[in-house]
Design a protein that fits this description.
The protein has 260 residues and is an alpha/beta fold. The chain contains 9 helices and 10 strands. The longest helix is centred in the middle third of the chain and has 13 residues. It is globular. It binds iron/sulfur cluster (SF4) (2 copies).
Length: 260
């Protein structure tokens, strides 16, 4: 039987930011949301794309042969499950009991056959599995193949959620509540973006929603970082930059982000 093939934006090894323990994170192309602050804008379009960094270009005019300075980069390569698992397997000695594979994006459920095949293959090899998802889709097979589901709650109401991400919160909210019934551990996070959601009332409202879901064992606030701006520029897209929240603001908001 032929294996599903995915369009992979990047694979990051030894990550300690995308779930517990040490993990290999597979970033897949494609996301139906358009968060204005997205730090992976190269993952939104499901197709391979070229990024151009003019400051790295030495003008050698050998683009057709492939750029060796990193000025022209293609994001999105076709990979089989076996291709990805070779990289995931290489670090299995470091995963321990908590770590493993995180399938992220973009929105990994947009490439559902590939994501499911990766998760099942990792599980069959005794490697811990997680997805990092927007929760815009419901996919019980995928969620049941995970030891952990990580998701963002960016805003607690439809109007602002639609304004800043392109979709309302209602379907995400419904999927989060439905996931709570499966008994899979859930890790919730909010990217704190000044001018969007960096206030006590918004964070308090999100925490109050999460507090009623016993499967959510942790709620984290993540500070906005303008990582995506250079990538927006390299993609030829309009640049959107926000203020970086101060340490003091993050500490203040943490007081409202408690679960129980
Ligand atoms: S190959 Fe790279 S460095 Fe050379 S001209 Fe093309 S983009 Fe610039
Ligand atoms: S859900 Fe994630 S990948 Fe998709 S646009 Fe928002 S921040 Fe970017």
């Amino acid at each position: 039987m032929s294996q599903p093939v995915g369009i992979v934006a990047d694979i990051e090894r030894s990550s300690t930011h995308d779930g517990p323990g040490m993990r290999t994170v597979v970033f897949l192309k494609g996301c139906p949301l358009h968060c204005v602050w997205c730090h992976n804008p190269e993952c939104i379009d499901p197709r391979p794309q070229e990024l151009f960094y003019p400051d790295k270009c030495i003008g050698c005019k050998r683009c057709a042969e492939g750029c060796y300075t990193g000025a022209r980069v293609i994001c999105g390569r076709k990979m089989t499950v076996a291709d990805v698992m070779r990289e995931v397997d290489a670090d299995r000695g470091y995963y321990g009991r908590e770590g493993g594979l995180t399938v992220s994006g973009g929105e990994p459920l947009m490439q559902r056959e590939f994501t499911l095949a990766l998760l099942r293959e990792a599980k069959a090899r005794g490697i811990g599995t997680a997805v990092e998802t927007s929760m815009i889709y419901w996919d019980e097979e995928i969620f049941r193949a995970c030891d952990l589901v990580m998701f963002d709650v960016k805003l607690p109401d439809d109007e602002r959620h639609k304004r800043w991400t392109g979709v309302p919160f209602a379907p995400i909210r419904a999927n989060i509540l439905r996931l709570a019934g499966l008994g899979v551990p859930m890790l919730a996070r909010t990217p704190v973006v000044p001018g969007v959601n960096a206030d006590a009332a918004t964070i308090g409202e999100i925490a109050a929603f999460l507090r009623d879901i016993p499967a959510v064992y942790k709620y984290e606030l993540l500070s906005y970082h303008p990582l995506g701006v250079a990538k927006q520029r390299a993609l030829g897209q309009p640049e959107t930059q926000f203020e970086i929240p101060s340490k003091q603001l993050m500490e203040e908001l943490k007081q409202y982000a408690f679960l129980r």
